[in-house]
Amino acid sequence: MLKLIAPYKPILAIPGTRALFVVAFLARLPLTAKSMALTLHVVLDQHGGYAAAGVAGMVMTAGMGVGAPLLGRMVDRRGLKPVLVLTGASETAYWVTAPFLPYPALLATTFVLGGLLGVPVFSVIRQAVAARVPEAMRRQAFALDSMIVELVFMVGPALAIAAITSMGSARVTLAVIGVLTVGAVVTLWLLNPPIGHRSGTAGPDAAPPRKLPVSTWLRPSFVLVLATGAAANLVLSGTDISITALLRQQDAVKWAGVCIFAWCLLSLVGGFWHGSTARPWRLPVLMLLLGAGTVPVGFIGHFGWWWLALALLPAGFMCAPTLASTAEAVAAAVPASARGQAMGLQGSAMTLGGAIGAPLAGTVVDASSPPWAFATTGTIGVLSAAAMLAYLRFAAARESAPVGAGHGSGPEVVVGPEGASGAVLEPAASC
């Protein structure tokens, strides 16, 4: 255990990082409960169906997906505090008014105030981690952050469900989420973490780096990193739905919490391993193992809930490392002056993957059976990893060709050798 913790000690010794990770946990809690609280508000308070609740959740997801890169670009240009003022005021207005709005008005305000102008806590924290921590220690830092995200998603939705079901209404919970969101904004404002070029290693009078055109960093390899992040979240959201569907088929839904807990626990263990090992696996390898580990889960879990819990362990081990490696690759792919927009694009890609994974798995369950839902989403993960591996081989062959045979115009971010999951390599470097 001491060997696993040791690599994280230098990160926590950096001034400001302990406070940053504490805020990373607390500020994310209300965000993880938003979708669940909105769903139950539509069902319990507005007496709508689950289809109407699903539309509301989809609208919020769409708003967040559109808003993330726009807010990230605003952070790059204006700094963090103006974005916190704008989004904090918007979300406060949303949570104050949402309990009293009719359904059509709720959808409109959910898209604009709750989604498009929602507080970009996830991307801001990732930006702050990239700016605060030296590049040599970012793998450990993002692994620690991914474990915090895992804990938040284990706690936030569960607290929201417990509060709403105990009161029989979601209105109080919506108000509490609003208060907690304001608290998160105030905390981030007071912490004022370094963002982009305003890193802790830069002097107070350091000039901001020259802003580069998007075309200099929005390269095919970067798009593949985003696609891999989307595929990872697709697999995870699809697995979540498939677990419930399979256990419901076995009349064992009461054991869903045990299975999901085992899945999340192994993700935490995997995150510790990813940050502590001297030879971490590359991003496409992690994605390949996550997808391949998900494919047989339903067929094994068909024999009982305990088999399902065991079958989830290998894929669970890959969850946090894959997400951490994706964030590290995005941070390394772009100049500091464009990190906000890049992290926003990553957030949009993850949101898109999650928005596709759950309904895709549900459709497969309805058309066939839960085991094939696991297999379908896992196969998409495998194909995403295969696409990245194929591109890396193609890029390596192209860059090793003689001069004049079609070199690229500059370095691209690729998944580097020896597990350097996000590194900007010169054209001559191989993968």
TrEMBL record:
What SUPFAM superfamilies does the record tag this protein with?
MFS general substrate transporter (SSF103473)
Q: Which UniProt keywords apply?
A: Membrane, Transmembrane, Transmembrane helix
The coiled-coil regions, if any, are none
Name the residues that span the membrane.
12-31, 51-71, 107-129, 141-164, 170-191, 217-235, 255-273, 285-308, 372-392
Q: Which InterPro entries match?
A: MFS (IPR011701), MFS_trans_sf (IPR036259)
Q: Output the superkingdom of the source species.
A: Bacteria
State a single Pfam family of this protein: MFS_1
- Protein name per its UniProtKB record: MFS transporter
Q: Which organism is it from?
A: Catenulispora subtropica
* Lineage per the UniProt record: Bacteria, Bacillati, Actinomycetota, Actinomycetes, Catenulisporales
